[in-house]
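COMPLEX REQUEST
Ligand: 4-nitrophenyl phosphate
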Amino acid sequence: MLMKACTPSSVLLVCLGNICRSPTAEEVFRQQAAIAGLSIKVDSAGTSDWHVGSAPDARSQRHAKSHGYKINKLVARQVSANDFRDFDLILAMDSQNLADLQAIKDSIAESEDSLATLALFSEEDPTYCGSDVPDPYKGDNDDFEEVIERIESSAQAWIESWKAC
Ligand code: 4NP
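STATUS: Structure written out below.
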């Protein structure tokens, strides 16, 4: 396990396009935090600028909705250096996202302590620890379902770790 930190005041979920995994994770996280009674600002972004301004992928919207998560109003944006100042914790959906985020963090000429903590989204999850939430973009229905399953599990694990603090 990465850390036993107390509840962050803000969490940013990051994937490649910000139209499949991270907007889903944003809404799952928001709902789970509310249920747990935790007050956390939650947002999402992509490492790429490919879909900036777009709504989540229609397949992600459909799968999310079928599990009770409404993500149709979310709008994709690209992660920026300022996000490392504005958020306490930034969670990457996969190891490539994590490497890309680390490169941004390394390029910021400020003390490490004042910037967001960076981790893999699965880091606290005993079921999926250390593994990626696989990119479903070129996948099928099963791949989009797997995204929801992994996101629910790993988000719950973070929240459980903070409730115990
Ligand atoms: P996401 O999925 O990173 O979960 O939003 C993707 C969305 C778009 C692309 C790749 C992954 N793309 O190649 O456009």
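REMARKS: The helical segments are 21-36, 58-66, 83-86, 95-107, 141-163. Residues 15-21, 50, 135, 137 surround 4-nitrophenyl phosphate (CB under 6 Å).
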